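Continuing from the previous page of notes. For each protein in this section, the sequence appears first, followed by its structure tokens. Read the first protein now.
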Amino acid sequence: MSFPPAASYPKSAALPGLGADTAPRRALVSVSEKTNLRELCDGLVALGVELYATSSTRAAIESYGLPVKSVESATGFPEILGGRVKTLHPVVFGGILARQGNVSDEADLQKHGLFAFDIVVCNLYPFQDTLEKLGAACVSPESIATLVEKVDIGGVTLLRAAAKNFERVSILCDSLDYLPFLDEVRASSGRTSVALRARLAVKALRETASYDTVISETLATLLEKAGAYESRESLAAGFTDGPVRSKGGHFSARTVSKEEGIVAELPQALRLEFRKVQELRYGENPHQRAAFYSAAERAHDSSEMALPGLHCFHGKELSYNNVLDVEHAVRLVSECHFQLGASLVAVIVKHNVPCGVGVSMGPEASLALSYQRAFESDPVSPFGGIVAFNSTVDEEAARALSETFLEVVVAPDFSPAAAEWLQRKKNLRLVKLDTRLPLANRWQFTHVQGGLLVQETDALLWDAKAFRAVTTKPLPVGSEGTLKLAFSVVKHVRSNAIVLARDNQTIAIAGGFTNRVDAVRQVLEKARIPLDGAVLASDAFFPFPDSVELLKGKGLAAIVQPGGSVQDAAVIAACNAQGLAMAFTGMRHFKH
């Protein structure tokens, strides 16, 4: 590409030396979002700054009655490809990247008749906003094409170039920074400081990193759903998901592997991106600050259950502890919903710990019955707790709920009569969330000092091929549902965990003990419902027969546990001596 004659360019001005605060002379402005643009440009013109802008931005500035020149007047080259190429030109990037006090750079500017840009004002194409507007329609080819056009090229390059040369150039990527920037420049007699430029540069680099992460994760998901991108086949063919620098893959907070039993290789580098949903009043305690963030790429996806999609339509604002309790409650509801078939499920959680689970099915099934069964398990702990359902709350269930002080009720929906009944409680938070959807998270992250632990979520219950009865007495006929209920609940109780269940309800739940004998002793002491015919679930194997010996004469019908102890034979013998059935699942469910 040949350059226009040097005479067609404005002559360059001498650049101030490095290390000194600089007075801006020219600004390049290219923005999609024009909040505070008028105030910024008015302030810059008043400071003697010459404005250059791309087409739509230039039209906006002209409408304010302010002087502005087109980028084309500087480059001598028009915008092309329907606006896909506007600023990608040596005149623009030479003017941004020229280093202060660098003799060679200044000679190049003089040789080609270029001039320096001292301020770059740029915000990126609204990819995320477009994603949210398209919603579930994103998977259509037309929607994907619309999103692709919102992948900014020149804007990201402008931000990176200006940030790279922060020693001379100020970069404004956020309209909220315009007025504070003007205030600081005015207070400094029209000059910018290195500290100000450095602060703005770091923000711009974080913006490009965030932008690229959202785009890459979103397009990977959408293209895979549309059948245009098969990451697993590509990997099988010898390709990797990147990044190149780390020689490994990456994944988002939402998903990598969607196929049960297939474990994707954990990557060498993680790129996680979250957007703030709301400030919270405080964290676990009033002296701790807190906020709620959403995985940035999941705004379009309504096929999975994610807490940023919940709708609290009555009561006080959700707190940090409320959200955490809701997370534990809906995970357990989901577990029971998918493991127990088309049953109606009620889960009561207090301080992240389940204190009662009830299910009902068949002609007599009702949500009120499920809640009654969950409540009977522990009628004391639900006070101030969280209740979650997998079906629409009706008036009968609402009346039962209103008898106890609760913090939050979560359900896919509330009938008008139920909502009216429950809204009589001013502070009760009523939350709509479709708990029947698959859970959004495939990976679990635990923040440790200076690092992050990552593991797959515990998505399985037991391996049907490994499940086996191991005692002389067979498992009771028709006990599979109760065994699944008990083992589903025990997955969600802190280890060491023991759960008693019978007739579609938990009887008692105990967890968080440092030895299994104490957990068994505690669950027996907590039981308020007769144990005849009940089953006991343990999250891990019994290391010795002493836990089984505590069950003697309690009327239990069966035990379900992972097995795998060196003392399995002794534990089985203890069960046989009591005429107690036991099954091994072959799958442990520690929850630390």
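Done with the first. The second protein uses the same format. Note its length before scrolling.
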Amino acid sequence: MESNSTEKQVTEYAGGNEMAAIAIKQIGYDLMGYYPITPSTQIAENLDEMRARGETDLMMIAAEGEHSAAGICYGASVGGGRVINATSANGLLYALEQLPVQSGTRYPMVMNVACRTVSGPLSIKGDHSDIMYLLNAGWPILFAHTVQQVYDFNIIALKLAEQVRLPVAVAYDGFFTSHQKRRCLRFADDKVVRQFIGEKREVYPFFDQNNPITVGSYMNEPDLINNRYQLHLAMCQADELLPKLFEEYGALSGREYGKVEGYFREDAEELLVLLGSSYETAKEGVDKMRRNGKKAGAVTLNVLRPFPGKELFAACKLADTMLVADRQDSYGAGGGNLSLEVRAAMQKYGGRARIKSLVYGLGGKDFFAEDAERMLDFARDTETPDFDYYGVNPGIGQEPADQGGFFAPLTEDRTRIGATTVTRTGETPGVVKVEGGSLNATAAVPKRLAPGHGACPGCGIPVNLNLLLRAIENPVVLLFQTGCGMIVTTPYPKTSFKVPYLHNLFQNGAATLSGLAEICYRKQRKGELPPGDIIFVMVSGDGGMDIGMGSAIGTALRGHRLLIFEYDNGGYMNTGYQLSYSTPKGARSSTSHVGVNQYGKTFFHKDMPRIMAAANIPYVATAAESNPTDFIQKAAKAAFYAKTEGTAYLKALSACPLNWNDNPATERKVIEAGVNCCFFPLYEIEQGATRLSYAPDAAGKKIPVTDWLAMMGRTKHLCGEEYREVAESLQREVDRRYERLKTESASNRQGFIGRDGL
């Protein structure tokens, strides 16, 4: 690529996320609060790798969810820091409550949005259904339709943000622009970028103890409307400033942008108006139509807020027909948000064109040059409606076939697990005793999972799910939070489940299941559903008990009768293994790289069973596939408590050979080593009393933590001399937690010597 810039630039072959990370590094931000979500996660991953190599001193704080990530960013920006964030889809929606707070109090920052479909149903592909939720948040929004623009707009965005004192979003298409690699130019010297942006100046320094300020005070009328008017004026200022910034950046880089960009729009009779990467594809369709003698053109917006109505009108005023293509719908409004705003702008400034709109490309559906041609033909045809969907199959009238029952009804004579409350003389009353629990004893329990799934070889999720479900004698209703367990079992239109199944997002699974359970119990009491025990089970993993911890604790405190099952694979595996709060200290992940300045994750793994036990629920336990009888007995106990008393919690150590970087054929041995080194001790807390169910030291099987770490590529580096201090700190923490369990278990009258060692 060539540039007219006087400043030296070098070529990068990279995707949008990579170019965003390069711009962020060159700008020299102070802090990034973030939470991994596809397809924006690569930004944090690339920046963490740069940190490990010593290329940036950016402080990166991994929040437990996007709402907290937005709060971290807000706090840092109030404190005067230069702050960056990145998110997508439901992550943006989860953070949305915080975003007007930041604009309303006028603190600048930049947030990259790799646009993606908003759930549900769950889809990780790119459309514009997320970014449109940001339209009314008071943030200027730049929309990049090329990888090069992602880099350039990130630099322009911060200068805009600090001059108008507003947070700014840089949006671009998920996967299309975020991941597809292109040849781009970047400045060779970081100083060029920093000189362009300039020094940060605080109008009201927060830490000035001699002149203390209050931020975010309570307002009623007339102050609130004055605040909003000032926000409006700031957006007007941004509208006036953007052309100057584009011109200034153009002189520096050789790439000058406008608010609106057109292709053969000067004499076009039909214009296709669209956002994002589709614009580049549409230009190919326009070229073909031009060769066939049709006066077609295309227009896109580089700025979504403030909306460039005047510039859009100037670009489109000569067209006879305009077709606005929306990659989202404002349901019930007769078009997506882009359509509505284009129509309003053209009417405001006296446009004469007939305007039609199509919703297209939802869920990342591909858009080809031929599609652009068909859309323009649709616009030209006077018989077509003003609004429609493009490329759909409504599926109306396709009734599902009657497939019959998946398995015979569950009856007591078919299963032999026998979890009951102890009432016999000489035994402690109130606890649950399991009469069966061996693998053979559960053979009669029908399989709730169909054969076949999309999990990686050696994945522990199906193993743990089958052990859990074969221990439950009653009918089961399942709720899965987002994660690998959900993704590999429900690829539409197929499902692996032979029982009622519901999915909801990480952050709200337990609350959703509590509502489902309570409505079932209500209907049973009213005679609207047949009586009988049903075990409601939420399955969580892949970091779901980080972002979903608040929902789970709230559910537990309320005491709903359900079972929370966590398969702990120690990371956000479904998004490519970013660190979670359950990742071992020192472990390598895509957001905790190992390098000259980093040794992996910097803090200890979260003790979720004890957190749940603090909610005073009747039963908490840990289990592992290496001890299957213990697993089944605990699962049976958890199910019994879930149907009789309240919330139960069961956690299993779950293998992930892809991201643990070990041998799928030896995962059971790896799990066993995790138990024997006491990183994952097996115990239960029943009615407040703690009991170790397996003591590797008593069984003569206890091993150092490094023996387990050496079995996995993600932690093998901790066994070297360079990282000995990290490994020793992990060993001390593991020993401290285990000794506490032993002490608590010994003080419990339920402690007994069992066949597994204690």
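What the second structure shows: Residues 223-253 form the longest helix (31 residues). The chain has 23 helices and 27 strands. We return to this in next week's lecture.
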